[in-house]
Amino acid sequence: MVRTTSDEAHDHPRDGVTATIEVPDAWPGLAARLEVEPGLTFLLGISDSGKTTLARWLLRALTASGRLAALLDGDIGQSTVGPPATAGMALAGPGLADATLLPAALRFIGAVSPADQMLPLAAAIKALADRASVMGAEVRLVDTTGLVLGPVGRRLKFHKIDLLAPRHLVALQHDGEVEPILRLFEGRSGMVIHRLSVSPHVVVRSQQIRRLYRAERFSECFRGSGPLELSLSDVAVQGSWLAGGTGFGHSELRGLSNELGTPVLAGERVQDEVALLVQGEPSADGLTLARSRLGASAVRIVEADAIRGLLLGLADQENELLALALLQHLDPRSGRLVCLSQWREPTKIRIVHFGTLRLDPSGAELDGSPVPSESHDEPGHRQAV
């Protein structure tokens, strides 16, 4: 094991912080193998196993000879390329300032846990990997979340690895905990599996430390933010039941308001399901009556106050993330959406992605889920906005 000075603090790099890390003996050998067999390398391991530190160490080692390399950051809860709730790609190589890993491209995920975002996350990493290849990166390193255990973790990692088809699959493990995933790829043509032990010097971070790190990164995204108004006729909305169906007229909204016992600000139908934006808590009897009269298999209720602060992703026509935003007001009837953002060029926005996370402009995560309740077979059943 050798000592080296780097700007990475074990598995939690912070830009501008210089730390001395212990480099396990196996790392230089891995770097040498990747040097002669470049391609896409996928890093696998539980949280606090050293994936990010290894990724950034490899990035420096592999670019020292003049190669152009890319780091693909899919660790949406503890992102180092771009803010949390996004997947990012950064380039490193000759003439590029790689110390801060400025993102060359970002994709919006909208959550800090991959459990309910498996498809968006896998698709985002694939798109970023392709983009890095087009930009000339021979070496592409994929840093991932620590969700590897249990059926959900195995399913997520299997499909991501299967989709990306890496040349090198690098597993960091304590005691064979990721072997159930590795066995799925044993003998896969064109793929080499590398098994590394977790360094004893890796720092384990508490959930509170992780949450504080996210708040700090989010706060950078909203510092100096101002109101940004968008017309729903000029943008496409993704990830929300609202602004995606056939709207109700004024008279129907008044009738629904009377039935539910609370103002219904907007309502839309998508096939046999209905979404309503309300101001306040509707009565249970009124919800049952409304569902019956509307002939809907499900009525999804979105409370206006509950989506204030919802994380949004403002993307261009290529679905590349321009900036994050926080929802302040949504009125499908007038076609207005008001959010807080650092972004000041509304004409470049083509897609508004709705996330599942609510934030204060300070970056703190707000309690309470923004997802709407649903009148369904089971009371309290939830669905995404």
Written account of the structure:
The chain has 385 residues and is of the alpha/beta class. The protein has a domain at 2-205: Rossmann fold (3-Layer(aba) Sandwich), CATH 3.40.50. It has helices at 26-36, 51-63, 118-134, 150-164, 179-182, 207-222, 250-260, 284-294; strands at residues 2-6, 19-23, 40-44, 69-73, 86-92, 103-108, 139-143, 168-173, 192-197, 226-231, 236-238, 246-247, 264-270, 273-278, 298-303, 310-315, 321-331, 336-341, 351-358, 373-375. It has a seven-stranded mixed beta sheet, with helices on both faces. A six-stranded mixed beta sheet has the order 10-18-17-16-19-11, with no helix packed on it. Strands 12-13-14-15-20 form a five-stranded mixed beta sheet, covered by helices on one side. A hairpin with a 5-residue loop joins strand 16 (310-315) and strand 17 (321-331). Helix 3 (118-134) runs parallel beside helix 4 and helix 7 (250-260) runs antiparallel to helix 8. The longest helix has 17 residues, at 118-134. The radius of gyration is 23 Å and the shape is elongated. The protein starts with a strand and ends in a 10-residue tail after the last strand. The model is unreliable at 2-18 and 371-385 (pLDDT under 50).
